[in-house]
Amino acid sequence: SGAANIPAATPAHHQVDGIHGGSVLLPVFISLTQKVAKMEWRFQPQSGLAFVIAEFTNGKLEWPNPRDRFGQRLDMADEATLRIASLELGDRGVYTARVRLASAVVEEHTFSCRVYESVPEPQIHAQLGSKTAEGCNVTLKCLASGKEAFNISWRREDQLSFQEDESGWYQLSAKGPVLHLSWRPNSSDSTVTCLVSNPVDQKNVSLDLLSICPVESGHPRMMWFLLPAVLLPFLAAGLKIYLWRKRPSQEGGKQHSSCHPLMTSSRG
Prior knowledge:
- The chain has one helix spanning 220-258, and strands spanning 12-19, 24-27, 36-45, 51-57, 60-62, 74-78, 81-84, 93-101, 106-116, 123-131, 136-143, 151-155, 170-172, 178-183, 191-198, 201-208.
- By secondary structure, it is mainly β.
- It starts with 11 loop residues before the first strand and ends in a 10-residue tail after the last helix.
- The protein is built from one helix and 16 strands.
């Protein structure tokens, strides 16, 4: 007897991302008019042979080999969605759901699963290159420990990325983690933030540039700016005293000249 020819639908491919220690869902989208007779799940690791990890029939999930790497970490979130709990880095790979419908049609749905480590707490190392009356030249380096590569970006206090700033007061290195700044202490934004991320997690750390390039009290430009505000009250007080002293002396002089007796001389 020959094997029956079972029509197969066009495979559907999906991308899912998960975090180490978390969980991920693999949903199979089936038309509401179709009824599932059996669903078989296979796993193709990044290295090694593919193997069946679960079978779902009549509303019940069974594990062909309960001692494989997944153990009891698999369950059905609903009748068409496989859930993998306590994700491990070794769970990266391709998962295939082979769905046999009651109409004898077989569908295959594949899921490329990527598992990422959580992003570690980043740190900013600052190095003061030079300092002048105009400002400081500073080099900042954002560090994040871990075996994986992370996306590193820098943001200003107003949450704009440095790529969106055209003022020219910064220079990004080709490697990304290093940021060169020519910063002026009288600038409005002194906080710089490093953002470290991957597709499933992100963390950030901020640095106040005033901590490495403080505004000095004897800054020449600042002193000239404050000088009018300091001298104005003294000038006003001096002018008021001058006018007060001048007015009484003038009035006293007028009274004295009007009452002065007329002196005449006579001979005889």
